[in-house]
């Protein structure tokens, strides 16, 4: 018997989110060593001398979605209390394992306060998942109705939704330019290949913003049914909102519109002017342009000169969990276009677009 749609989607999202938490909690995954201290001593540590409210709230918020997804993924026939308790226990065991593993990382400190915040967040999320998870993920719930009407179905649609969610997560990388992804240069510590000049940087920034906007817009269009452009515009608006929130939250003092560089302004205009007519093209043309735009944007982001005058060069806000989150979003943002290109290739093969128009008519239409 196949799993219901609610369990299927939630069971896809829950482990994906758990993996993101693993990376965030163990970032930067370097310098492993044995401190020689008992592994579980931190559980009985006294109240810390300095208590940062923002860090504690971040721990709660980080595990709240996990509790929600786990509760929604568990069988609906279970009693509500059993689902909430099981989801909280699974999240608590994950948090306990990660906090204990932090004993082996010199840049991390295992904390019973962090563990308590994580468990509290998971419990809140689990209770919410028991109460509203069905309405969100059930076959006739709001999310499923919207998805069936708007997006392609099956595992293909679910994977596309996860990739769009990861792209939005990557936009919370405050130190990156608007809509950019695929920056392997900064991830690997490779210097910029071109020297900086204002004219060169603005030209690269304009082309990068325009090609990134076109790539994400057409990628979203490849997942949707019908000609309605609202899902595409919604994803782009959410990306702008995520970048604005990131630059406001993660820099001290906050600068919410630091991303709105001259190149970004020009690129937004050019990108939208290119995207809107492309939404009227055939599926095959949109698919090809989406992949091409991803390749162009990825090449540009690794060629653009470093700009020492951007406010991104300032110190990030010093809360430890903010820095961990920044490391997570940076990794996701750097790898996203490569997963997106692989997905587009698989989607094109499944649709039969490589066979041409005549053969494609015999394939399942989306």
Automatic annotation (TrEMBL):
Membrane-traversing stretches: 12-30, 50-73, 80-98, 118-138, 159-181, 201-220, 232-251, 263-281
InterPro entries given in the database record: VanZ-like
Classification lineage: Bacteria, Pseudomonadati, Pseudomonadota, Betaproteobacteria, Rhodocyclales
A Pfam family reported for this protein in Swiss-Prot or TrEMBL: VanZ
The name this protein goes by in its record: Membrane protein
The species this protein was found in: Thauera aromatica K172
Keywords associated with the record: Membrane, Transmembrane, Transmembrane helix
Residues of the VanZ-like domain: 50-127
Top-rank taxon, per record: Bacteria
